[in-house]
Design brief:
The protein is α+β, with helices and mostly antiparallel strands. The protein has 16 helices and 9 strands. The strands form 3 sheets. A 5-stranded antiparallel beta sheet has the order 8-7-6-5-9. A hairpin with a 5-residue loop joins β2 and β3. The longest helix is centred in the N-terminal third of the chain and has 27 residues. The chain is globular, with a radius of gyration of 20 Å. The relative contact order is 0.10.
Length: 366
């Protein structure tokens, strides 16, 4: 029987697992042959397992309104509007130049041990921060840049920009926001020391490869520990994979022992990692990403930082046209604080509160 790998956001009830879903510790989370329901999908995504294997023949029988290929067309229309705008033309030029500069500087640091000049490293990214104050526009611009190579550098800039947004939401000072931005730029410097065949492997990592990949936090800290940098930047390089419930690495710290900057960069890191998969798993509706992250808001993340961030992301899409899973289209009117992924949508003359509709959701932007 044919099978295929899908992104967890594309999973639907009724699909059957074709390979065991394995946790990082080697335990089986979901056994081969299990039929998915919404609880199982939520459980899998809660462990940040982004890909699963399902039997292909099941997916072929799904209504087009629920399929990833259906939502792809509408979402691509949405992002085509961004791509064709004058604002994107300006952003694109500035962003690409910044990637080249960050790449050059970080490689120089790693290969020669040269001192880091924070102001020089920040220059291009802070310019982008200053000229893109609209959160919706910034996130959408980043999505359209997903085709770029040099993924580690692109990811680092994205995390820096998203971290700056969270800093603004927390009413941080200009200097604190610059610090957060620098934390984002340098958080993954250790990945530059991970072998390319592991770092860029398209498939699932083996246990040994995953163990090597996890060492990037230690390698990053080693690169930064003797640099004349704020201690919080060094902490972030080491601790940005820690989770508030103790399930992270390298130390399994709990919330009280994780510095605030590391908590914020973790949120930005996960958000960018999830949305980055759009480039090869079809276009992912932002409300799907919000759903996954909100499910972990009081466990893996610090709600002080993640709730305002997710509210900002969701609120950015008010007045945006969307398509629902039953095929109807409407406009986002009101965000529901307790279910940020299920806002109230005006469809014709009917205002539909999706938080009260278990089987109805937004599947794409129009």
């Amino acid at each position: 029987m044919n099978e295929k790998t899908i992104f967890i956001f594309d999973a639907e009830e009724g699909m059957r697992i074709s390979q065991d879903v394995i946790l990082p510790d080697g335990n089986i989370l979901v056994k081969k042959g299990t039929a998915l329901d919404m609880n199982l999908i939520s459980t899998i995504s809660g462990y940040h397992i982004l890909e699963i294997n399902v039997y292909d023949e099941v997916a072929e029988n799904y209504d087009a309104n629920y399929s990833a290929s259906s939502s792809l067309g509408e979402s691509e229309q949405y992002y085509d509007k961004i791509r064709n705008s004058k604002e994107f033309e300006i952003f694109n030029e500035s962003y690409k130049a910044n990637v080249d500069m960050v790449k050059q500087q970080l490689n120089h640091v790693v290969t020669t041990g040269a001192p880091i000049d924070p102001d020089e490293l920040l220059k291009g990214t802070m310019k982008i921060v200053a000229t893109n104050t609209n959160s919706l526009q910034l996130f959408d611009m980043l999505h359209v840049m997903r085709h770029m190579d040099d993924l580690t550098y692109v990811h680092s800039i994205n995390v820096a920009l998203i971290s700056s947004v969270i800093g603004k939401l927390m009413n941080y000072s200009e200097e604190e926001i610059k610090l957060l931005t620098l934390c984002g730029l340098l958080h993954d410097i250790g990945k530059l020391l991970i072998p390319d065949e592991i770092l860029n492997k398209p498939g699932k990592l083996t246990d040994n490869e995953y163990a090597i990949m996890k060492k990037h936090v230690n390698l990053g800290y080693e690169q930064l520990k003797t640099q004349n940098l704020d201690i919080r930047i060094k902490e972030v390089s080491l601790l940005h994979h820690e989770k508030c419930d103790g399930t992270g690495y390298p130390f399994g710290l709990k919330s009280k022992d994780i510095p605030a900057c590391a908590k914020i960069v973790t949120i930005a890191d996960v958000y960018d990692a999830m949305t980055a998969n759009r480039v090869y798993r079809g276009s992912i509706c932002p409300f799907e990403v919000i759903d996954i992250m909100q499910a972990d808001a009081f466990t893996k993340y610090d709600p002080i930082y993640i709730i305002p961030f997710l509210k900002k992301v969701a609120g950015s899409y008010i007045h945006t046209d969307v398509k629902l899973s039953d095929g109807r289209t409407g406009k986002v009117i009101l965000i529901n604080d307790n279910a940020l992924h299920k806002p109230s949508v005006l469809v014709g003359n009917e205002l539909i509160d999706l938080s009260k509709k278990k089987d109805l959701k937004i599947i794409s932007m129009l």
